[in-house]
Structure formats: C-alpha cells, structure tokens
Design goal:
With 93 residues, this protein is an alpha+beta fold. The chain has helices at 3-23, 27-36, and strands at 50-52, 58-63, 68-72, 80-82, 88-89. Strand 1 (50-52) and strand 2 (58-63) form a beta hairpin.
Length: 93
C-alpha cells in the first residue's frame, strides 16, 4: 500500500472517531464549543456538576484552555488538575 493511501485511511479513521465522540456530548456543549471556537468550551455547562476523570468522578470547578480543576469525590480536601480532553460529564440529563 502506498504511504499516502495509508495516511489518508488513518486520518479518515481519526475523523470518524472524533465525530463519534462529539455525538456523545449534549447539544448545549457543542453549541458552546462552536460559539467560542475552543474545544474546552464544551465543558462550560458542567461547571459545578459531576464529571468523569482518569482518577474517578468529581465536581468540575474551573475550565481553562490548558487545564480543568476538579474536586474528586475520593479527595474532597484538595483540587486535582487535568487536561480538558481527559474530562467528560457523568450525565447531562
């Protein structure tokens, strides 16, 4: 297989995965992302609400372009910091 074709297939797969991931977010979040033009903006509606992190669930406190602040349920005495892509809402009902 030619290298260009190989890369094109990989890029297409990444785009499909990204689209599938976007479908898991509520419309309000995607609207914030479109409005502000920044991927981390989709977390804005979840400030003060439960989110999932690599270290377990917690409450989202702050959202910045390079980091988010979460008070983990397992460690309520301190804040934990994550890259925005590592955090997603528990639910948006």
């Amino acid at each position: 297989m030619r290298p260009v074709v190989k890369h094109r297939e990989r890029v297409m797969e990444l785009l499909r995965q990204r689209k599938a991931h976007e479908c898991n977010w509520p419309a309000e979040s995607l609207d914030y992302e479109r409005r502000f033009g920044r991927p981390h903006s989709k977390l804005f509606p979840f400030i003060g609400r439960k989110v999932r992190t690599p270290n377990g669930p917690g409450t989202l406190i702050q959202v910045f372009a390079d980091r988010v602040t979460v008070v983990l349920d397992a460690e309520i005495s301190r804040c934990s910091f994550f890259v925005p892509g590592q955090v997603e809402p528990v639910s948006w009902d």
